[in-house]
């Protein structure tokens, strides 16, 4: 997978079990930090009704959309609870020098 690594934020800008919004160009992403301290990234909008997931609730490895409470698996993007039935696209994440980067194609 080709693409470029884009710096999102400092590691300490995302609390454990939290999500932030990251906009780059015309695209928007959700960047997560799980309760285990792992970082992940996905498309920013819920696949059900295009509501931004940065307003959602992170519970372990799950993000719950604030609009209709649909859930996705954070590491894989898999739809986990109705009304969502389409998976989220996920992106590689790395941490270097206390900064979080995502790889965007």
UniProtKB/TrEMBL annotation:
A GO MF label: monooxygenase activity
Statement: the UniProt record of this protein carries the keyword Ubl conjugation: no
PROSITE patterns hit by this protein: RIESKE (PS51296)
Rieske domain location: 6-102
Matches recorded under InterPro entries: MocE_2FeS, Rieske_2Fe-2S, Rieske_2Fe-2S_sf
Sorted UniProt keywords: 2Fe-2S, Iron, Iron-sulfur, Metal-binding
Cofactor: [2Fe-2S] cluster
Sequence similarity: Belongs to the bacterial ring-hydroxylating dioxygenase ferredoxin component family.
Protein name (Swiss-Prot/TrEMBL): Rieske family ferredoxin
């Amino acid at each position: 997978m080709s693409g470029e690594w884009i710096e999102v934020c400092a590691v300490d800008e995302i609390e454990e079990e939290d999500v932030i919004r990251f906009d780059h160009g015309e695209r928007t992403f959700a960047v997560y930090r799980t309760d285990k301290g792992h970082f992940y990234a996905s498309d920013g909008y819920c696949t059900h009704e295009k509501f931004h997931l940065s307003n959602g609730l992170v519970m372990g490895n799950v993000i719950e959309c604030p609009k209709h409470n649909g859930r996705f698996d954070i590491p894989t993007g898999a739809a986990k609870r109705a009304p969502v039935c389409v998976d989220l696209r996920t992106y590689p994440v790395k941490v270097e020098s206390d900064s979080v980067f995502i790889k965007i194609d």
